[in-house]
Structures are given as C-alpha cells and as structure tokens.
Amino acid sequence: MDNNKISTLKRIIEDNEIRSGEAKEVLEHHLNQLQRLGATLEDSVCGILRKVIARSEAEEELERMTEGIWRK
C-alpha cells in the first residue's frame, strides 16, 4: 500500500469535507432564489448535488457509528 497516496487522499477528503446540514441549507436557499427569479437548475445538477449530500450524510453516520475508525 502506498501510504503517501493514502495520506494525500485522506487530506483531500478532509479539505473538501461537506457538512450535510449546511449543504442542504445552501441548496434549498439557492433553489428558492432561482425560483423567485423564474429560473431553475438543470435536473442533472440537482441530482449531483443531492448525491453529494447523501454521501456526506453517510460519511457522518459512519463517523458516529465507528468513532472514525473507518477513515483509518
């Protein structure tokens, strides 16, 4: 196993961590703003954002369940 690569990937994950609650709030806020302007996001964009949020929620749950062991 390449420990440097693993460390780099872990750092990238940590640097780009998304809190699911914040992501949901931001997405809903922007969707509401777009709706007021009469615009929408493409379904594909919303789908990707929802997947990112779902992944973040799963990671947060794994973190709680395993006390961070899964990240090691």
In words, what does this structure look like?
With 72 residues, the chain is mainly alpha-helical. It has one domain (3-71). Helices cover 75% and strands 0% of the residues. The chain is built from three helices and no strands. The chain has helices at residues 3-15, 20-36, 43-66. α2 (20-36) runs antiparallel to α3. The protein is elongated.
Summary?
By secondary structure, this protein is mainly alpha-helical. Helix content is 75%, strand content 0%.
Uncertain runs are none
Secondary-structure element string: HHH
The global form is elongated
The radius of gyration over CA amounts to 16 Å
**Rounded mean pLDDT score:** 81
Helix content: over 70%
Number of domains: 1
Number of beta-strand segments: 0
**Strand fraction band?**
under 5%
Determine the number of helices (DSSP H or I, runs of at least 4 residues): 3
Structural class: mainly alpha
Cα distance spanning the termini: 13 Å
Largest sheet: none
Distinctive features:
single chain; elongated; 3 helices; 72 residues; mainly alpha
List the helices and strands and how they pair.
Layout: H1 3-15, H2 20-36, H3 43-66
Helix pairs in contact: 2-3
